[in-house]
Amino acid sequence: MPTHPTPPAGALSGVVVADFGRVLAAPYLTMLMADLGAEVVKIERPGTGDDTRAWGPPHADGEATYFLGVNRNKRSVALDLTDADDRRAAWEIAAGADVVVENFRPGTMERLGLGYDDLSAVNPGLVYCSVTGFGTDGGATLPGYDLLVQAMGGLMSVTGEPDGPGTKAGVALVDVITGLHAGMGVLAALRHRDRTGQGQRVEVSLLGSLLSALSNQASAYVAGGVVPRAMGNRHPSIAPYEVVEAADRPLALAVGNDKQFAALCRELGAPGLATDPRFATNPARVAHRDELLAALEEPLRGRTADAWFETLTAVGVPCGPINDLAAAFDLADRLGLDPRVGIADPRRDRPARQVANPIRLTATPAAYRSAPPRLGEHTDEVLAELRRPAPEGGPRTAP
User: Fold this and answer.
1) Catalytic site residues?
2) Nearest Cα residue to 217 out of 155, 175, 165, 286
3) Would you kindly state where each structural domain of the chain is located, as residue ranges?
């Protein structure tokens, strides 16, 4: 697990982000920007801070691993936005930033005097990103929790067994997807500002992000009028593309074309299946998926999942065992992906352990400058900076 005590300048060096985000979608976005060199000031509620500071177990060194997973490379400032002096400090931080990120309920930042119109009036180049659950109009009062959006946005209806209840994904996937969409929007807005000098507001909702990410399932409905249903581990449009049983444990089998299917049949000792009219083409295999699975089951049970993985991968048939996270990280280690990093932390006797940023840039790689902050760790430092003269043309006083 490498450590990075002296990181190089990142692609977003010089970009200052005022982060009013909480929980996952917004903090995930700002952490990715921080990894790429942005200076992120995380503004938190005194006493409790980001909700995820209390979301444990599990913990590491007394801190919730949920919070630790999305808040490295940031400075924490504890400010009570209901207090006039603290709100003024928050306004100065935000008005002097390149990017503001917030995910309060719609209207909250405006009531605090921290909305886009308030800040862009003194900083026309500001990029202001609002992350909501269900948008700023009809859904403004709905709470934007990932589970609710997975349920109400259709993801749970296509996840799980056919006759079972709707099932959520095993991670807050909608929050993560929304953070990525928001990041794309912010980078596009920064690029526009570079060309024109003009900032803009970026709005991304959890529901909108999920519907976009449902991809082929959403297209089946929008373009084809088909309402998809849960199919367990099967795919609605490809076969065999599901979990099958090997001799010792399940195996994921993802056959994407006829050539791969023919290679699978050869390795199973049943080449005739590839020319059987029921299975010769993908549409035919989809139409006869139960018969197909019955034909594949016996030979597949003759070897272990690892043995099939080695044999089938060698002939171009996509497959793999179902790993837990320990095995998944071990696999990434063996493949040279370096999925873990250690960040030097003077508060601890060992580096803070983190999941690596997966973006690889040759000239400006992601960097790990600081461990996730303690609540309010940098309050005095950042407030002292506010007393310095503002950059020429920048805001100097709050309204």
Assistant:
1) 175
2) 155
3) 16-225+371-387, 250-321
